[in-house]
Amino acid sequence: MEGFIDAMEEFNIRLITTEEEFESVVINAMVKEGWRPGLKDAECYLACDPTGTFVGELNGTPIGFVFLAKYGENYGHIGCYLVRKEYRGKGYGLKIFNAALANVKPSRSIGLSALQDKEQMYQRSGFHSHFNGGRFVFHLPTAVVCFSESLEQSTVTVKCIDQVDQKALFVYDSSVFGFERRPLLSKWLRVYGRHAYVATKEGAIVGYVVARPTFVKEDGYKIGPLFADSESIAEMLLKALFEELLQQEKPLQWSG
Ligand SMILES: CC(C)(COP(=O)(O)OP(=O)(O)OC[C@H]1O[C@@H](n2cnc3c(N)ncnc32)[C@H](O)[C@@H]1OP(=O)(O)O)[C@@H](O)C(=O)NCCC(=O)NCCS
C-alpha cells in the first residue's frame, strides 16, 4: 500500500477531539457524501468516545477519517469511514482504518454497518456479514396513515422517554444491542431536538425509538435506534413518533 503514496508527501494520522473540528471535517464531508448526519452528531460521537475519531492529514490537510467508538471493555463500533473523493484509491483510507483498529485491544469485538458494495472490502479486514439491513425514507403524512390498529394496543403503553427509568432503558438497550453503550445513550437520548418514545408492557420496557434532527434542516429527521419486541410494538412507536413530528414545522423527509 505504501507504494501508492508519494514519498514527498507527509501523511499523518491523529485524533479529532473537539466538536468544532468534528463538524468542520467529519460532518461536512458526510453531508457532501449524502449521508445525512444528525444536527448534534459531533456532540454525541465525542461523548460516546472522545478518543475514537481518527483523521488522516496530507501535508496538513484533513483528507479522510474513521470513527471507532469503544463501548465498555469488549466492543467497538466503526462508522464515518470516508476519504475525500480526489484522494480515494491511493492507500490513505486503509491506513486510517488500520490505525484506528491498532488502537484497540485485539480481543475487542468490532462491528460496523456496511454499504452492500463494501461487504467484500470489509471481509478482507476479517469482518463477517451477519444480517442485511435497509434504509428507508418516509413521507410522513403518507406513512402515518398506513399503520394498522395494533393488536397489542390494549396491553402496551407508549410514553415519552422522560417518563421512564433511564437505567431500565439502558438495560433494555444492552439486551437488544448486545453490548452496554451508556456514554452514547446518555447524550443521544437527551440531545437537542430529539423526539423519543418508549413502549412498556406490564411495567417492563418492550421497545423504544429515537428521532434526531439532521444537520441539513431540509433533510428532516433520522430515526434510530428503533428497538421493539414485536412488529406491532414497532408500529405503535413509529405512529406516536410520526404524529408528534407532524405537529412540528413541516420537514421534507424522514429517514431511518
Ligand atoms: C471506502 C473508502 C473510505 C476507502 O478509502 P480509500 O482511500 O479509497 O481506500 P484505499 O485507497 O486505502 O484502499 C486501498 C485498498 O485497500 C482496500 N481497503 C480500503 N479500506 C479497507 C478496509 N477497511 N478493509 C479492507 N480493505 C480496505 C481497498 O478496497 C483497496 O483494495 P484494492 O487495492 O484491492 O482495490 C473510500 O473509498 C470512500 O470514502 N468511499 C466513499 C464512502 C464509503 O463508501 N465509505 C464506506 C462506507 S461502508
TrEMBL record:
CDD domains the record matches: NAT_SF (cd04301)
N-acetyltransferase domain sequence ranges: 11-152
PROSITE patterns: GNAT (PS51186)
Pfam families in UniProt: Acetyltransf_1 (PF00583), Acetyltransf_18 (PF18014)
Family matches, as SUPFAM superfamilies: Acyl-CoA N-acyltransferases (Nat)
Molecular function GO labels: acyltransferase activity, transferring groups other than amino-acyl groups
PANTHER family (alphabetical): SLL0310 PROTEIN
Protein name: N-acetyltransferase domain-containing protein
Source organism: Desmophyllum pertusum
